[in-house]
Amino acid sequence: MVCARGTAGYIAPKVFCRNFGGISHKSDVYSYGMLLSEMVGGRRNINTEVENTSEIYFPHWIYKRLELDEELGLQSIMNEDDKVRARKMIIVSLWCIQTDPSNRPAMKQVIEMLEGSVDCLQIPPKPYLSSPPNP
Questions:
Q1: Which H or E element spans position 14?
Q2: What pTM was estimated for this model as a whole?
């Protein structure tokens, strides 16, 4: 691979910044996690049209809600089953987008987490990439 290819926001940090290491199979896990969080959030991961700057980068915004054990505040949640599924998908997506590739699960583990109980999932460390600036 001579140069980075992909959609901004979905490519792993180490693809565009060599400080995070080289490209590996865990780069695809990162992309999957970003897509998963976008699906469950019902919005793009970066939304500059929100009222509060803390809501610009969805993974940080939703992580804070999980950390404080707050309601997820997602419009797609209609009942308790949806709430459980959304929580599981968010936790899995946050594991997938860990900045350090060694902290990301393999896709086999991702499938196991999605098929398993949400009660067995731990909240991962906060991904430490900073939110993009508000234009």
A1: helix 13-16
A2: 0.72
